[in-house]
Design brief:
Helix content is 44%, strand content 15%. With 314 residues, it is an alpha/beta fold. The protein is globular, with a radius of gyration of 18 Å.
Amino acid sequence: MHFLLTENIIEKAMNYKKPSSKSWASSFFRNQLKKLQSFTEDEPITAERRAQDFIGMLLQKIQHPDVRFCPLEFNRFQAAMALPPSSDCSGAVLYLHGGGYCCGGLEYAKGFGATLATEGGISVLCPAYRLAPEYPFPAALDDAMTAYRFLIEKYDPRKVVLVGESAGGGLIFSVCLAAKKLGLPLPAGLVAISPWTDLTASGKSYVENESMDPSISLRRLQFFASCYTDEPENPLASPLFGDLLNFPESLLFVGGDEIMRDDAVKLHQKLLASGCKSTLTVAPNMWHVYVLYGVKDRRQDMDAIQKFIQRVAQ
């Protein structure tokens, strides 16, 4: 892959300053993401990691340059605390990034972490958990649990919110499963954006939407899953198969055109069947983790996340 060409594609897709109509913006993002997918589909993980970190740096630079980051060192991974320009919230967010458990370093985590800090007016812990295949399951979960323990020692767990997208969206539910098993207090709420909750890919949307999702393919997801675990049906890897009883209130978002749509839909249905509060938004014509791109015609979804965090973390 010619990485400079990939950088140009990403920079165009992240060019929020260019005036445009809502319909033009959505179409433009879809086209740029499709181009990016074509370049990374058969490339080594290292190339995709570089592209993802570049996206994170652009998110920080373009959207939230006023957010400060306090670096943190854990034994097995790095992290940073995103500090908003102003805050009256006594709680905190643990943000777990996506990337198929194989991609996404600290710069990528800081990208949307900065958005959450600014929008929610709240401190956000952004861990760069260890990645597969170098560190397969349960390394990501172990690191996420370390970060969660760190937060609930410093903040009232009733004011801690877990947020994640894609693999991170599944991982926040795995954290809750692990915490419940260990007898640790659960967080105040969960926000999952296009959560990857079923590494066995059993949902119909993996087939129905593959041609419509411009950002990820089933083949690439299966590759990521094989790098991460030999037990994709394990509830700690695929929390859709776990016991969700007594889970905190959840706010879920998924694109109507993405192949992981059914991961969110089935999770929502199981949460409700388990007696938990859950709200699901299926955004028509939207792609995987569309919320991260700040698409103007879906601004209401970021507003809903902001209100949810401020309500449950106060």
